[in-house]
């Protein structure tokens, strides 16, 4: 509650409008009434033509700019359009809306140059970074998890776990809402075809408008959807080695008040991987040394079907209904080879364990949304309802034994059924041309029923019997109710935003076989504040703060072991508590004609930090790994994002994140702490040759990191991509190689008293991909001059 007075004061301050200036607003469009984003609007004094101030239009072509009373003329310019001048602009004692400015294409330029209307791969905005992943050649033919792993500051682990700025506590949304594709199975993003993804938004310090979940922020995956008039769409087909075949389409049809949209993706792949480890343990009563070698193959057939309709009730109100279906079937195989040694290093035993898992998954989502825009610009009301039903059934057969000897047969069943629904309403009310208040309410429910059993075959009795330590059913019930209010305003060069969000959490875990129940409920207030100051026309400084929560992931609460490795058990912890984070960030945005730099300094203070640690080794050499609330962590970091167009045919993007994390805690009287300095970096160079041949090279690096029980070693990779427009610009043929040097291998070391482990693991090997894209009645985002395209082919 110590933040409440500050937030109330900030909300009050924001509602006070500046009286020494007024605003000029409007919208910039082309002759087809399409918005012209990033057009330059310059205000000149009518007396001597001196430049007074200026701005650029947003992605909707709209702009708002402050000006003191006086006589002006406005000059609107943008590449490939004729300059437009609006004379006789008089500001006296009222704000002015100049309406729509229609820009005409520059005919001479159209005849002589290629119009590069392509969106940048990375757009830097004050509250988020937007990655237009469809423009990134290294993403062609990949799945959603691979795409996220290619983005700056984001890492996707071998089991599909996503982390941002070194933390796994990040909220993942699809189209701004929770989805069954991200909430249940960490590997589900690998079943979402990347060709269906339009862009990814990374919000590192979200405001009170967003859910408070996620220590380091929100990753929002935006799927492709269009509203252009007529029928248009995109079709893709791709293949690769190791084996991959797939395809997708995204199409829409709009006429009058109805817009129909649909997308579909199919993906059939086999992903080979390998792993190896060395384990050594010694104590007063037991010791062991062994090596493990693992070969695995994962994959199967996955579908993603999405369809919906927009109904434009009036010019200012729209109803949208959509559904998403995601069925998949996979077969995963692996072989573990254990080599046991004595103290002198002599091989004394060899054991082979095989696994064959059949996995059936299906997610069904239904969404109904309503949006109303009022006569007053910026005043909107939205309401959303979403229902999700998910099924994840796994059946696994295991064999284990020495070569030529008898085999131990085991089988496991792990079935999860999930039901979600949410209702949400948001309202925005402007109280001045640059100020607004926002309010919203949300309620969400999530119920997961998980059945897990492990059985072993008795050869003498010729029947199966359950292993009680690994058999139980769990029901997870989560209900979260939230309400928020925010206000923002701009005073000349200063913009302020403040908000307060309240969330009530009601969570229960129940083990039905052993009749164990763990109910928990708590209410929290989550304030947020944002201040930005425009130092110069292209220089902006931003300060932000938010208080956040990270509730334990469902799979971290499961008390059942992952039995794939019979010597290393990953066990959940139903008694985990949520983490809380105070996040502070300062950002500086510098824009110039052909480049931009966004630099950020951040600090996070976390309590009840959840980490997976090795908790014990039994006399047979079995190691237990369990998540637990350690204590607290302080993380300091500096992040740089740099974009530069060296020439009209060469663009580079790079980013780097340097941070220090200090973790201190204990487990069962054992002091656990770490102090690590590490960094991640990504650099992309994209070149265009012969005006229709694009080449891209991407380098990714993640530095070593100290953990509470050891360290993670450095990892790097290089991706290459090449694409060429064909069929008079309607088609694109692309070839790429992911992980050129086959170096994307996770390596970590655990070194505690009496126990040492050195592990290497590669989820998938180097991959070659070939992709064909065809556009129906739709120009490529890099719009090329029609006459030039005809000359090319």
How would you sum up this structure, described in words?
The chain is mainly β and 793 residues long. Strand 27 (516-536) and strand 28 form a beta hairpin. The chain is globular and about 100 Å long. The protein contains 6 helices and 45 strands. It starts with a helix and ends with a helix. The protein has a 22-stranded antiparallel barrel. A 5-stranded mixed sheet has the order 8-9-13-14-12. The longest helix has 11 residues, at 4-14. The protein has 2 domains: 4-112, Immunoglobulin-like, CATH 2.60.40; 122-128 and 226-514 and 526-792, TonB-dependent receptor, beta-barrel domain (Maltoporin, Chain A), CATH 2.40.170.20. It is found in: Cell outer membrane. Belongs to the TonB-dependent receptor family. This is TonB-dependent receptor domain-containing protein.
Q: What's the architecture of the largest domain in CATH terms?
A: Beta Barrel
Count structural domains. 2
Output the structural class.
mainly beta
Count of DSSP helices?
6
Largest sheet: 22 strands, antiparallel, barrel
Strand element count? 45
The name of the CATH superfamily of the largest domain reads: TonB-dependent receptor, beta-barrel domain
If you compute it from the alpha carbons, what radius of gyration comes out, rounded to the nearest whole angstrom? 28 Å
> Into which percent range does the helicity of residues fall?
under 10%
The end-to-end span amounts to 67 Å
- Our estimate of the beta-strand percent is over 45%
CATH class of the largest domain: Mainly Beta
Whole-number mean pLDDT: 82
Q: The CATH topology of the largest domain is what?
A: Maltoporin, Chain A
Low-confidence stretches: 1-19, 107-119, 781-793
Large-scale geometry: globular
